[in-house]
Amino acid sequence: MPSGTTRAPLFWFAVSAAVGITAIQGPKISPWIPLTAWLVLAAWTIAGKKGNAPALLGSVALAFYFYASARLLTFSPDDLVWRFDEMPQSVVLRGRVDSEPESAHEDGEKRRSNFEFIVSERFVEGKWKPASGRLSASMKGQGGIPVIVNYGDFIEATGFLTRPRTPRNPGEFNARAFRANQGIYLEWYPLEQTVSVLSQKRGNPVVSMAAAVRAYMMKTLQLGLDNDPEISGLMSAMLFGYREGVSYELKESFRSTGTLHLFAVSGQNVAVVTGLLLVILQMVGVIRWRWAWVLFPIIFIFCLATGMQSSAQRAFLMALIVMLGWAIYRPVQPLNLLGAAALLIWIWDPRQMFDLGFQLSFLVVGGLALGAGPLSKRFHQWGQPDPWIPQRLLSPWRLEADRIYYAFCALVAASLTAWLASEALILYHFHLLAPVSLLANVLIVPLASVVVIVSALSVISGLVWSGFSVIFNQVNWLLLKMITGMVGLLASVPGGHFYVSWFDTAKPEICRFTFLDGDRAFPTLIQFKKKSWMLDTGSEQVWKYSVDPFFRNAGINSLNGVILAQGSRGHLGGAGSLVKNQLTDWVGESGIRGRSQDVAGWRKTLWNAGAGRRFFAAGERMALEEGLEIEVLWPDRKKEFSRAEDQGLVLKIITAQNSILWAGDISEKVEEILLEKGTSLQSDLLIQGEHSQDKNLSRRWLEAVKPRDVIRPRHGFQPDRSLSADFWEMARQNGMRVWLMDRTGAMIFQASGEDAVPVPFIQSKPLP
User: Is 201 exposed, middle or buried (0-12, 13-18, 19+ CB in 10 A)?
Assistant: First the structure.
């Protein structure tokens, strides 16, 4: 074994196990190869010859390779995963609700209940047949009220079964991969009116008890905070990891400062709860060897109530081993402890190896175990008293100052070590580099620790009298106001955090256009000479789940300008978030006022944010950069239309090599007006969405534009009335390539000349 492993053999066993589990996602090979290698290594290990430590570690790796393969890559014959492909299908299922349902927000209201579901039967050909599988279920209620089901309910319902969504834009969350790491390969959407609860309380009674504990904690932490529910949500997030009550904007501030880990149940939370319980046990006179037997069930229920996140599992198992060490009066080596926890978790569920939370948790704890102590001592040497002076000669104030300085050094060392240990994963997955997180953790982690302690006191004292909980919650209100203020300030520090792209192949001298798939909108990023501009932002949902993640993935930290081409919620709803975060120098639009009060509110937000304002009208030309111009073709202020689509901007974007006609969602009527004006419309690429009421993409329009490529954003009006037989016939005759975003997802176009062809994010060929 490597040097020093005799003191922490389980740590190196865990490293070997991690290699073995990870190998199942590698290239497919004949099972005889690893089996033969395993037999050879096992024989070498059993022989007990000198230098057999590598053989032992290799045997462990191969043992976990076979174990993980058997657990993760095999399914029972009646599992639903065998019976369903990419197309949604209607099914009637019976089974058990296997998690506590959580309410999800839609358009600002709680409209969905999300839970995990264990299938027992499927109704096929007029009778019930055995079926199996673990599904992610989501039920939509009516009138803003989610459907009520509880953990352990055995239900029957009709709904649509489909595969989890894959990303349609660069940087989007990969729900399919995430669910697969949880052992879930299908999503089920039961129809609310078909749900029947056949029986109740068929779940694990321990899990039911944990759910009741969680409900009690949430209720207790809300006492006295009716006027500030977000503070209550923050307490719940910091104590037991429930983030539902924390706003998206606040979570982003914590993420930007590298302090989002405070919302994960970790060793800190378990240590606080354990410490409080130990104080109580000591006060009542319980002797040390009995501590483990008293603490174990309480800590287990607490971690179970948090949902047993990866960090909670690790913290619980490490606490359990420490408590057993107390019981038998045995010391525990930190790396050995970490390795034991990892092995136990992987034996229970090898999928945890691929969970990002698990990886971050173990990397940080391993880094702290290896580096925090030595680093803290090194920092302390710089300011400690002269070691040649006896301590009895030092003044009391100097000794106290040294103790405070030592605690500060330990805090800085822990923050630096945790940042270094986790930064590689954070850069890879989130593209985030946050130097400010070092300062943020030093300032905020101590306060957050106090919040967790006070929250735990609130929960415990609430069992005696709810008035105690109100008092503790008010203390936390003050602490959390301080924390949110500091987080907001640090998140806005220039250069405090920024995003980087590892796979950017764009050449500065070539103008690149990225047309994002945004639910009938098509937010467009223009990149040229290391500058960036945005056309539209999409709705608030599109901004949150598509545009903002794409910016991070592409390393876009600011924009040189934003043009809001259409005054509707679906096209400019995300602009408020963009401007609030100071991501752009100026915002431009047509200036035509719409009827929507929402749009008026967004415009007011934009102007109040202090960004520069520009207004565009037909006939204007603007040079964004030398070699990149925009010609405004529409709207004409003399002509008014009732639909926002027909009042939107139509832009001809001209580069040194190519031209693009960005036509929004205009109708055939606007197309005719532009044709009558005699404006030069010819462009290499046309991108135009579907009008909500009228047709577009007329024959005359296409003959005038003469595009080599037509990009059609995802439509929401079935069928797309403009893609008629006449359209497809004309496309064939003229050799036009037609790209439908329903199939392609985002499209990337690099303006490099006559041979330039748009590239789809999802592999797809052009039509016809």
Answer: exposed
Q: Are strands 659-662 and 685-687 parallel, antiparallel or unpaired?
A: parallel
Residue 275 included in any domain:
no
Number of independent structural domains in the chain: 4
Domain co-membership, 555 together with 691: yes
Q: Count Cβ atoms below 10 Å from residue 709 Cβ, excluding itself.
A: 20
Q: What is the pLDDT of residues 124-170, one digit of tens each?
A: 988 999 999 999 998 876 655 556 788 899 999 999 999 998 999 99
| Angle 145-151-153 from CA coordinates, rounded to 5° | 90
What residues have CB less than 8 Å from 703, skipping those under 6 apart?
A: none
Q: What is the distance between the alpha carbons of residues 496 and 432, in angstroms, rounded to a whole number?
A: 11
Residue written as token pair 């035509």: 592
Spatial contact of 221 and 466, defined as CB atoms under 8 Å apart: no
What pairs with residue 112 in β-bridges? 104, 140
pTM: 0.84
Nearest 5°: CA angle at 258, between 253 and 263? 75
Question: Are residues 662 and 747 in contact, defined by beta-carbon separation less than 8 angstroms?
Answer: no
Whether 554 and 623 share a structural domain: yes
Q: Which domain-ending residue is among 39, 72, 105?
A: 72
Closest CA to 188 of 45, 259, 92: 92
The reply to whether 40 and 125 lie within a common domain is: no
- Residue 670: its pLDDT value, please? 93
Q: State whether 401 and 543 are in the same domain.
A: no
**Domain match, 402 and 519 both:** no
CA distance 559 to 488: 21
Return the pLDDT at 108: 46
What DSSP designation does 386 have?
Answer: P
Q: Is 309 a domain residue? A: no
DSSP string, 190-228: E-GGG-EEEE---S-HHHHHHHHHHHHHHHHHTTT-TT-
Tokens of 680: 């030069």
CA distance linking residue 437 with residue 420, whole number of Å = 11
Identify the CA nearest to 245 among candidates 253, 255, 235, 254. Answer: 235
Q: CATH number of the domain that 108 lies in?
A: 2.40.50.140
- 67, 91: one domain: no
- 567, 647 Cβ separation under 8 angstroms: yes
Show the tokens assigned to 687. Answer: 């991108």
* Listed residues 51, 72, 93: the one ending a domain: 72
CA distances from 293 to 281, 324, 325 (A): 12, 9, 12
Asked if 165 and 37 sit in the same domain, the reply is no
Closest CA to 468 of 478, 457, 456: 457
Residues 573 and 711 in one domain: yes
Would you call 115 helix, strand, or coil by DSSP?
Answer: strand
Count of beta carbons in the 10 Å neighbourhood of residue 357: 18
On whether residue 171 sits in a domain, the answer given is yes
Q: How far apart are the C-alpha atoms of 756 and 432, rounded to whole Å?
A: 32
How would DSSP label each residue in 538-598?
--HHHIIIIIHHHHHHHT---BSEEEE---SHHHHTTHHHHHHTT-BSEEEE-----S-HH
Choose among 520, 579, 515: nearest CA to 547: 515
Domain enclosing residue 377, as ranges: 370-430
Alpha carbons 588 and 536: distance in angstroms, whole number: 10
Intervals of the chain under pLDDT 70: 1-7, 47-52, 86, 104-111, 141-147, 264-276, 278-279, 281-292, 307-314, 322-332, 386-387, 391-394, 503-506, 582, 593-603, 606-607, 609-611, 716-718
CA geometry: angle 191, 309, 201, nearest 5 deg: 50
Report the distance separating Cα 225 and Cα 233, nearest Å.
Answer: 10
Residue 42, both tokens: 């096992």
Please indicate, yes or no, if residue 725 is contained in any of the structural domains. yes
